[in-house]
UniProtKB/TrEMBL annotation, chains A, B:
<dbReference type="InterPro" id="IPR003767">
    <property type="entry name" value="Malate/L-lactate_DH-like"/>
</dbReference>
<dbReference type="GO" id="GO:0016491">
    <property type="term" value="F:oxidoreductase activity"/>
</dbReference>
<dbReference type="InterPro" id="IPR043143">
    <property type="entry name" value="Mal/L-sulf/L-lact_DH-like_NADP"/>
</dbReference>
<dbReference type="InterPro" id="IPR043144">
    <property type="entry name" value="Mal/L-sulf/L-lact_DH-like_ah"/>
</dbReference>
<dbReference type="Pfam" id="PF02615">
    <property type="entry name" value="Ldh_2"/>
</dbReference>
<protein>
    <submittedName>
        <fullName>Sulfolactate dehydrogenase</fullName>
    </submittedName>
</protein>
<keyword id="KW-0560">Oxidoreductase</keyword>
<comment type="similarity">
    <text>Belongs to the LDH2/MDH2 oxidoreductase family.</text>
</comment>
<dbReference type="InterPro" id="IPR036111">
    <property type="entry name" value="Mal/L-sulfo/L-lacto_DH-like_sf"/>
</dbReference>
Length: 336, 336
């Protein structure tokens, strides 16, 4: 097989270079690169390097302000608002993580409402950052319209991920990360990029009919996981991520992909809890008891296990890119 | 049709009387009755009056301590632990709601970890109480084992409800309330009580095979909503409700139904957020924009609409009980 292998450091450098060449501040570019390379290393290609061309396009057109510095607005003793100022989401999310970890030792729980925001990528990335600081993290994010309300036919909500992470004493944090569509929209994007068909049951076309064509699926609506219950969760996340942050709804937000129009201005709600005080000191050992009980049953594994395996492999062996991906990365980094 | 109609007040009085005759403090009995009658009025029979015989049995045997007074333990500035002290969950939950609504004006967000707890009934009931105080409420509760870990075969987790409520300016709060099994376990209990079969797809028997027999289903495991994603949410709720509260896991908890053994000692995690400050003042009007956009599509309705309709009917016309239900209620209230 042809293709090219890049170390994570080399890939990171090229992503930074590409973004900086497309009107992005180097410090912001480094935070975006951290997230894209981490997603790629975790095998989450839909939120990895595949996003770089559209990120560069949006920074170049000004749809994303690559020079924005996110701003913290205190809202209450344990609540803050983070204005992403139409920049990339990652600097705003990193700021939220930092501020939440400053608040929680006193408050036990704290919440950050991120607004004027953009695609936050792999949702698990941000809660994992909280868990690495010893906190339980919960994230609700909204995204441009993709799912119809239950019983309806027109897309209104995004695929609206929920992410959750817990710290473990002798292991990497355990991360749960799921979009509420039957599959992540990124998977359909990736299939489109690769020219592959998608399985039936993932989405319906604009007329509401089943489709295996990723282009038709992206023009139609995604199906929620878990039918009516899943649709209720989609609404819950839309309220938490958009109403409670004062952000655009999925049906108001512009695309995360093209460089046209106003900024999407979606929202993210990030919650952090201090597990020691909240649990009365029981957290660390009880978590291990529960996870051991799961693994005690044949056929089980813990959420994120596959991802951690891929990450370790990528750290040792680097990222395997196709020739096309590698050339695109080089071209973006060389652009001026 | 035969049967008996009771006003909510009359039903409430009989429930209190029944509990008091079965070793329960009158103030605690009133809080339990509030919740059971409210669930019955909302058409949620699995968490309504059908629970009374087993509640009375457990209070009589001492599995539930009807005289327990829940105790608040501050854990951090915006976090508290509520020891239900092996009493009914409702007094502990009511105390948590009260304390959270005292904290949130200062903190913006607050969390209560309820432990040594019991069946909290209709999960939406507690978050609705927060929403009636102007707060956004989120509840995660664990319940005795009913669902196997994904890929496994033995029940480990409960059906682990998530409930969410938001205040509305000119309407009752909107409440989302869902257990993470494909259907609520209470529905299978109710089918068993009524001697009815259940649809296929709700549960598997002890050997892991599909069943329509509610007795076999209760001896087997429930299927999660949304397959692997739903199973991940079940684990998330188990961690939030049991690990983070320091409570028994589903596989450690005794039944909510029979009067045998130790108390179940499950947990509930209740989160409250002040929507005004967190959203920068946008919450109330943006919520109405979103809900109007949903209702603008034919075939849609808001979560809880059916429930609110039944509630209004019950308030006007009373509760329609079968002869059997009515006689049971009378018998329990007359017991000594």
């Amino acid at each position: 097989m042809s293709g090219k292998t890049l170390t994570l450091e080399k890939a990171h450098g090229l992503v930074v270079q590409a973004l900086v060449k497309h009107r992005t501040d180097p410090a912001n570019a480094a935070l975006v690169a951290d997230a894209l390379v981490a997603a790629e290393a975790d095998g989450q290609k839909g939120h990895g390097l595949s996003r770089l061309p559209s990120y560069c396009g949006q920074a170049a057109s000004g749809k994303v302000d690559g020079f924005a510095t996110p701003q913290v607005q205190p809202a209450a003793a344990a609540a803050l608002r983070v204005d992403a100022r139409h920049g990339f989401a990652y600097p705003a999310m990193a700021l939220a993580v930092e501020k939440l970890s400053e608040l929680t030792p006193t408050s036990g729980v704290a919440v950050a409402a991120v607004f004027n925001s953009h695609h936050c990528g792999l949702a698990g990335y941000h809660v994992e950052a909280l868990a690495r600081r010893g906190l339980v993290g919960l994230l609700f994010a909204n995204t441009p319209q993709a799912i119809a309300p239950w019983g309806g036919s027109r897309g209104l909500f995004g695929t609206n991920p929920i992410a959750f992470a817990v710290p473990r004493e002798k292991h990497d944090p355990m991360v749960i990360d799921l979009s509420l569509s039957k599959v992540a929209r990124g998977k359909i994007m990736f299939a489109k990029q690769e020219g592959q068909a998608i399985p039936e049951g993932w989405a319906v076309d604009a007329a509401g009919k089943p489709t295996t064509d990723p282009v038709a699926a992206l023009a139609g609506t995604m199906l929620p996981m878990g039918d009516a219950k899943g649709a209720a969760l989609v609404l819950m996340v839309e309220i938490l991520a958009a109403v409670l942050t004062g952000s655009h709804f999925g049906f108001e937000a512009t695309s995360f992909f093209d460089a046209e129009g106003e900024p999407p201005s979606v929202g993210q709600l990030l919650l952090a809890m201090a597990p020691g005080p909240v649990s009365g000191g029981a957290f660390a050992s009880r978590l291990e008891t529960l996870l051991a009980a799961i693994l005690d049953q044949e056929g089980t594994r813990l959420p994120g296990d596959r991802r951690l395996g891929l990450r370790e492999k990528a750290q040792k062996e680097g990222l395997a890119l196709t020739d096309q991906q590698y050339e695109q990365l080089q071209r973006l980094a060389a652009d001026h």
